[in-house]
């Protein structure tokens, strides 16, 4: 029974990362040489006039270990117009930014990690900002893994609790 309990625990810890999001509500991991540029944002569909939170991270592609740049430069463009630019010091290894898009439309968010071994690492991701008061389309239920994560957690807790209980029966 102890082997079963260990098997269930191992399975939960191996399967759970498949359902846990590495980003905020949305984002991208972009492979850049020996690095991964991780850009996440929330909400999934930014809305004009409302705050959007960004997280910018840099990691080694092979090990997944965080890389600490000296600073991170972020630029947000709408077409040819610059709408935001700033340089941030990572705390401790990532940068977060809250930004309010002034209007709906297509934007490019460029992030550049400075002071890393291979020189500046930069990538650009496109973001579509929705107009306020426009209904948002959500993913179909089968693409939402939150329910699966809850299900696996409950099943694992039940099996672990049941197997522990049987071990103590006289």
Q: How would you summarize the topology of this molecule?
A:
Elements: H1 2-19, E1 26-32, E2 35-42, E3 51-60, E4 71-78, E5 81-88, E6 94-100, E7 105-114, E8 121-129, H2 146-167
Helix pairs in contact: 1-2
Main features:
170 residues; globular; Immunoglobulin-like; alpha+beta; 2 helices; 4-stranded antiparallel beta sheet
Structure write-up:
Helices cover 24% and strands 39% of the residues. With 170 residues, the chain is of the alpha+beta class. The chain has helices spanning 2-19, 146-167; strands spanning 26-32, 35-42, 51-60, 71-78, 81-88, 94-100, 105-114, 121-129. Helix 1 (2-19) packs antiparallel against helix 2 (146-167). The chain has a single domain (2-167), classed as Macroglobulin (MG2) domain (Immunoglobulin-like, Sandwich), CATH 2.60.40.1930. A four-stranded antiparallel beta sheet has the order 1-2-3-6, with no helix packed on it.
Q: Could you write a compact summary of the structure shown?
A:
It contains 2 helices and 8 strands.
| Rg on CA atoms, Å | 21 Å
State the domain count. 1
CATH 2nd-level architecture: Sandwich
CATH class, please? Mainly Beta
- CATH H-tier superfamily: Macroglobulin (MG2) domain
What name is given to the CATH topology?
Immunoglobulin-like
Please state the average pLDDT score.
77
The tally of beta strands, per DSSP, is 8
Order of helices and strands: HEEEEEEEEH
Shape: globular
Strand order of the largest sheet: 1-2-3-6
